[in-house]
Write a structure and sequence with these properties.
single chain; about 160 residues; mainly alpha; two-stranded antiparallel ribbon; elongated
């Protein structure tokens, strides 16, 4: 089997887009960052390309039944397992949910790139960065207001 330039471009794009999300997580000093997100997107793309290659090799071969969507389902299950290991419950808080969700998105980006959905992958990356970076600011602003209201109410009743 020959290596096609388009497949190499898909792998590189996966590293770049996964890396962009990973950079945001590095900026926030989260445990999964640039390398992790790049590797997840790269791995998902590679598995998708392998699935597509196998499908084309065995399509029409008598006695062989092959469903490439099973590889995508396995990627989702594998990332779910990794994400589940990242989620930690401590007393009244839960940590790691955003990291797990981010890795899930990185895997989805990899699959989308693997099947050639470049524009969709780029838009999903931009939306992910918006969610991770800008919604964090909105969330922080909302929580600051809520905490100041809670403290004011506390003083009123004590």
């Amino acid at each position: 089997m020959e290596i096609v330039q388009g497949e190499v471009i898909k792998l590189v794009l996966a590293v770049i887009l996964g890396g962009l999300i990973g950079l945001e997580r590095e900026y926030r000093r989260k445990p999964a960052g640039l390398k992790t997100y790049s590797l997840v997107a790269l791995g998902a793309t590679l598995f998708t390309l392998i699935g597509a290659s196998l499908f084309s090799q065995y399509q029409g071969v008598e006695g062989v039944s092959y469903d490439p969507s099973r590889i995508i389902a396995s990627i989702v299950a594998g990332i779910g397992f990794i994400g589940g290991g990242l989620i930690i419950r401590r007393q009244f808080t839960v940590e790691g949910l955003t990291t797990a969700a981010g890795l899930w998105i990185a895997a989805a980006l990899g699959v989308a790139i693997g099947v050639g959905l470049y524009f969709l992958s780029i838009v999903a990356t931009i939306l992910s960065l918006f969610i991770l970076h800008f919604l964090r600011s909105i969330e922080d602003s909302f929580l600051r207001k809520k905490h100041s209201i809670d403290k004011r109410d506390e003083k009123q009743y004590h």
